[in-house]
Amino acid sequence: MADANLSPAGVALKKNVQAHQAVVAVIGAGYVGLPLAVELGKESFPVICIDSNPERVALIRTGQSYIRDVAAADLAALVAAGQLTATTAFGDLSRADVIIACVPTPLTETKDPDISCIREVAAQVAAHLRPGQLISLESTTYPGTVEEVVLPLLAATGHQVGVDFFLCHSPERVDPGNAHRTTRNTAKVVGGVTAACQEIAVTFYEQIVPHVVRVSSPRVAEVTKLFENTYRSVNIALVNELAMLCERMGLDVWEVVEAASTKGFGIQTFWPGPGVGGHCIALDPLYLAWKARAYDFPARFIELANEINLRMPHFVKDKLVRLLGEAGKPLHGSRVLVVGVAYKRDVPDVRESPALKLIQILLAEGADVVYHDPWVPKVAPDGWFRHQLSSVELTDDLWPTVAAAVITTDHSHVDYALVCSRVPVVLDARNVTKGIAPGGGRVVRL
Ligand SMILES: NC(=O)c1ccc[n+]([C@@H]2O[C@H](COP(=O)([O-])OP(=O)(O)OC[C@H]3O[C@@H](n4cnc5c(N)ncnc54)[C@H](O)[C@@H]3O)[C@@H](O)[C@H]2O)c1
Q1: Tens digits of residue pLDDT in 242-293
Q2: Model confidence over 313-351: pLDDT tens digits?
Q3: According to a count of CB atoms within 10 Å of the terminal CB, is the N or C end of the chain lower?
Q4: Ligand 1 centroid vs 421 CA: distance in angstroms?
Q5: Is 140's C-beta closer than 6 angstroms to any atom of ligand 1?
Q6: Is residue 171 predicted with pLDDT exceeding 60?
Q7: Is 171 in the same domain as 25?
Q8: Is 420 labeled as catalytic in the residue annotation?
Q9: Is residue 237 situated within a structural domain?
Q10: Which of 396, 394, 419 is nearest to 407 (CA)?
């Protein structure tokens, strides 16, 4: 669409965006928001980070990064230059030309979508809405959130979408801990509520990413993101099911998957593990399944994948009980060393981590659980633990007390050879012990 179809507010905003003079407010400065804010700052956009957590705001203000993918030096330089500021005050929204929401989208206790953060943010945006603002929701959410939840709140102000303000969904695809795939080199999907919303939003994202994919509506963008993560969840479940079948058949699942991966076409390699975790794969598919129910459509692949992935920590526990039994020990009363509580390699993130679920199960069965994770010094109480657990060092005094170890995260800098040489029974759920000689004990892969 050419500028001629944009309202005067749209024309002015587009020019401002192209000149990198538009003030951008990023609401929610976490794994998604902070890297984005820094990249925008580097492109000379004045950036305001708005976060409800005062500790995070204080850290940003002093140039300290709490997100591994954001270099403290980059953040500090932007803060020192006044290019990037941080606040807990939503009042600053009235200064923003572009507002990007990156707030959490968890599940409720009953595993339904909890979009309360999005509602809260939309209400704040509505309270400060003025003509000439672009609002982009980047949080992962169910189809219809932008048009059924956010739009009515904004439209109730009397401002007209596509004329006064511009609204889109552009899901974030960041992969924390992945140095090769970053905010800057990953294509961005954008779906605007109207053609004018789309034009302004695409123009904005073109300033910071190499490739912008236009889709016909926010709903398409919402489902695109959920499909991407459902694809991973389903394929991980498939290989986890294969792991359980291989166990029954007495086969090595790692050998099977490794052999299959040599085909080179028609198959993408996924590895089994103790379950799925993180804020995305473990949750997002359930957002889609929840919305599907409103269409009388049971999303069976999603539900089945979730069921299989949730079963994995129990499968790991059962296998551990068998291995301990073969070594003449009960689980009850035995000390088990869990190696890795982060949900994936080389990150400190424990959200939805299957290792925590495994610890919960082991504690419930009377095991004495200790853990080692160089990325996670403490696991905060979260209802699962009566007390906080601290990571133990892999020292000589530990070994005589440990009956078994379970490797649940494949962090880079852990001495797995040492664990294998000192612990009588090692259950490796991540295939990190491949090629390591057991050294007297027993090392069994999932
Ligand atoms: N983490 C990922 O790998 C990833 C990848 C792609 C998409 N996403 C999606 O992006 C969204 C954000 O995820 P994240 O991992 O960055 O979360 P996060 O928990 O790391 O960060 C969210 C931030 O929002 C702040 N916040 C919470 N409620 C707020 C409110 N009402 N007002 C202002 N600030 C508020 C929190 O203090 C926190 O700093 C989610 O929808 C998630 O599904 C996450």
Answers
A1: 999 999 999 999 999 999 999 989 999 999 999 999 989 999 999 999 999 9
A2: 999 999 999 999 999 999 999 999 999 999 999 999 999
A3: N
A4: 41
A5: yes
A6: yes
A7: yes
A8: no
A9: no
A10: 419
* Contact between 181 and 156 (Cβ < 8 Å): no
Closest ligand 1 atom to 120 CA: 31
Q: What is the pTM of this model?
A: 0.93
The answer to whether the CB of 306 is under 6 A from ligand 1 is: no
Q: Say whether 297 sits in a helix, a strand or coil.
A: coil
In a domain, 225, yes or no: no
**Domain co-membership, 93 together with 210:** yes
Using 50, 70 and 90 to split pLDDT, how confident is the model at 1? very low
The rounded Å distance from CA 281 to ligand 1 centre is 14
Task: Say yes or no: CB of residue 33 within 6 Å of ligand 1.
Answer: yes
Give the position, in ligand 1's atom list, of the atom nearest the Cα of 105.
41
Q: Does the residue 310 lie in any domain?
A: yes
- Determine the distance separating the centroid of ligand 1 and the alpha carbon of 107, expressed in angstroms: 13
Q: Which of 216, 239, 272 is the last residue of a domain?
A: 216
51 and 176 inside one domain: yes
102 CB near ligand 1 (under 6 Å): yes
- Give the Å distance between the CA of 323 and the centre of ligand 1: 40
Which range marks the domain in which residue 334 is found? 258-445
Return the exposure string of 69-102: e unless at least 16 CB atoms fall within 10 Å of the residue's CB, then b: bbeeebbbbbbeeebbbbbeebebbeebbbbbbb
Output the six-digit token pair for 322.
């068998």
Assess if residue 221 is contained within a domain: no
E strands, 123-176, are 133-137, 165-169
Question: Chain-wide mean pLDDT for the chain?
Answer: 94
Domain CATH number, residue 153: 3.40.50.720
